[in-house]
Write a structure and sequence with these properties.
By secondary structure, the chain is of the alpha/beta class. 17% of the residues lie in helices and 36% in strands.
Length: 179
């Protein structure tokens, strides 16, 4: 965990690594990760001031039965359950998605499969995706402010991914800030 000062307050940066997730209601915590073909789903309930981020490597485990967090379904279920346990309300959850890049042209498009999985999962669970930065061939460095839902992204290399802001229903949530 790194400490940085922002507006006179200590900002604690928590790095969410591959196959992990983190949930908090602490306004001084910023969640950070670096993504290639992996996807991070940032979920939050801004009214309750709680949010979290996961970082999964593969959309599903195929025929293998596993509780490993590197698989999307496990990472999503645990993130949602932990958010609800921390005071988030299911009907107020919103999502921002990052990652899913195609990091090599000579292999299967794992990033595309991860991005499709995340979008389909959220649709099935009726959790609105208010913004996303998925696809392309650039790695991304992401910072997520879980109590407000604000997010920043830095693209690292390659051709820019297609930005596809979701069409939120109802109120508009601030979009992704590039830094």
């Amino acid at each position: 965990m790194n400490l940085h000062a922002k507006n006179g307050r200590a900002e604690r940066i928590v790095t969410v690594v591959q196959g992990d997730f983190f949930v908090t209601d602490d306004p001084d915590v910023v969640l950070a990760t670096v993504l290639g073909s992996c996807v991070s789903v940032c979920l939050f309930d801004a009214q309750m001031g709680v949010g979290g981020m996961n970082h999964f490597l593969l959309a599903d485990q195929g025929d293998i039965k596993s509780n490993d967090l590197k698989y999307g379904v496990n990472a999503m279920e645990l993130l949602i359950n932990k958010l609800l346990a921390a005071g988030g309300r299911r009907q107020e959850l919103q999502a921002k998605l990052f990652g899913g890049a195609r990091m090599t042209e000579h292999a299967q498009d794992i990033g595309g499969a991860n991005a499709r999985f995340a979008l389909e999962f959220l649709e099935r669970e009726r959790i609105p995706c208010v913004s996303q930065s998925l696809g392309g061939n650039k790695a991304r460095r992401v910072r997520f402010y879980p109590t407000t839902g604000a997010a920043k992204q830095l693209q690292i290399s390659g051709v820019a991914p297609m930005m596809d802001p979701a069409k939120p229903k109802g109120s508009v949530t601030p979009d992704i800030t590039l830094f």
